[in-house]
Amino acid sequence: MHNAPIVVAIDGPAGAGKSTIAKEVAKRLGFMYLDTGAMYRSLTLKALREKIDLNDEASLTALARSTRIDLKIGDHHALKVLLDGQEVTEEIRSPEVTNNTFYIARTAGVRDVMVEQQRAIGAKTNVIAEGRDIGTVVFPNAFCKFYLDARFEERANRRCKEMSEKGKAVACAQVQQDLQDRDTKDLTRKVGPLKIADDAIVIDSTNMSIQDVVQKVIDHIQSHG
Ligand code: DC
Questions:
Q1: pLDDT attached to residue 75
Q2: How far is residue 203's CA from residue 133's CA, in Å, rounded to a whole number?
Q3: Any bridge partners for residue 144, and if so which?
Q4: CB 159 within 8 A of CB 93
Q5: Backbone CA torsion sign across 101, 128, 161, 166
Q6: What is the pLDDT of residue 225?
Q7: What is the pLDDT of residue 2?
Q8: Is the distance from the beta carbon of residue 149 to the nearest atom of ligand 1 less than 6 Å?
Q9: Domains of the chain (ranges plus CATH)?
Q10: What spacing in Å lies between the alpha carbon of 76 and ligand 1's midpoint?
């Protein structure tokens, strides 16, 4: 029996399937799904709207401190993201936000604020937390850690398919290029870079179905207890 809430960490590069897997595992176990990328995205949206200089660390940090981001689960277990009380669920997935999140994510003061808020959530309730630095920085003592990966071409194909299914016009070569850029930025930033925690279970999902990955994650969590 665990008295403190249980935290499960899922890290990995963009397009590895973290959101899909984390959402499904959270639903099956009745845990909260904590999408930390949605927090960085929301703050990026606000900074763009307010035309804040994305290289100005102090302003970005002050913005993070004065912003309220809420992650709610709506109908059919869909994640609803609220920025200062206003819904931004779709808007934070736009290419403009995606391509500018890097400025927000590399700012140490912003990360401090985000990490603090993420820890506060994890201290209250059982969570499946998904991101880049969850097992290494946010929750180094997580109950169970996963690093979800897939071959680059597969991740790019998944992204491309996902976007065309949503009816968005996409050039797959551009998707590949953007993904490559994001990988580089995620891996090389000085604070909270994407890194495999020493005690993480690495899952390569290249040739696995979603259900197989979900089952593998759940089996590990249950055998950990
Ligand atoms: O997982 P995502 O694609 O929604 O994340 C958006 C961006 O936010 C991603 O480029 C890296 C950043 N991010 C981060 O720096 N740390 C996290 N814990 C989660 C996301």
A1: 75
A2: 16
A3: 8
A4: no
A5: negative
A6: 61
A7: 53
A8: no
A9: 7-224 (3.40.50.300)
A10: 24
- What does the pLDDT read at residue 144? 97
pLDDT of residue 189: 96
Query: pLDDT digits over 155-196, tens only?
Result: 999 988 888 887 777 788 888 999 999 999 999 999 999 999
Select from 35, 182, 34 the least CA-distant residue to 103. 182
Which residues contact residue 45 at a Cβ distance below 8 angstroms, ignoring those fewer than 6 apart?
Answer: 83, 88, 91, 92, 97
CA of 187 to the centre of ligand 1 (A): 11
| Dist. CA 1 → ligand 1 center (Å) | 32
CB of 145 within 6 A of ligand 1: the answer is no
CB within 8 Å of 208: residues ≥ 6 apart = 216
22 lines ligand 1 (CB under 6 A): no
Q: Which pLDDT tens digit goes with each residue over 73-87?
A: 877 778 999 999 999
Q: Give which of 85, 128, 105 is closest to 43, Cα–Cα.
A: 105
